[in-house]
Amino acid sequence: MTDYREGQFQQLNHALSRCRKLGYRVRGGSAIARVFEADPASGAIAVQEARFWIGSDDPTSPTVTEDLTWVDERERALPLARVGPIAWSEGVRMAAAIFAGRHVEKEAQNG
User: Fold this and answer.
1) Structural domain boundaries of the chain?
2) Assign residue 39 a region: left if phi > 0, alpha if psi is -120 to 50, beta otherwise?
3) Bridge-partner residues for 52, per DSSP?
4) At what angle do helices 85-99 and 12-22 cross, to 10 degrees?
5) Is the pLDDT at 109 greater than 70, yes or no?
């Protein structure tokens, strides 16, 4: 999902701080939201994890957010059609909350 791409943070530290403040773990450059989701076909409970890329370079360097993706319990990419409603909702909520803290240039006021 690309709705939350290109969120600019002046430092990776700022994005990491936002993740901590919101209660999200960060691993391998991605903020993580891990949920338990019922498989519609079998009813079995499985882990699905939303991952929102925030960057993995020098913490004092600028960073830009990238895609929101989901993986299964074996860390295999999930097609969007297989993402459960709870995992979808929690992933979008996480990405939106982190993205909301991005640096936004103020527009010059005329006159």
Assistant:
1) 8-99
2) beta
3) 31, 68
4) 130
5) no
Two structure tokens written together for 11:
């430092």
The residue behind tokens 């960073």 is: 63
Q: What one-letter code names the amino acid at 4?
A: Y
Question: What is the rounded CA–CA span in Å between residue 32 and residue 11?
Answer: 19
Distance CA 24, CA 62 (A): 20
Distance, CA of 87 to chain centre: 12
Q: Is the pTM of this model over 0.85?
A: yes
Alpha helices (H) along 35-100:
85-99
What is the chain's percent helix, strand, coil content, to nearest 5? Answer: 25, 30, 45
- Is pLDDT of 111 > 70? no
pLDDT in tens, 76-92: 999 999 899 999 999 99
Residues 31/24, Cβ–Cβ less than 8 Å: yes
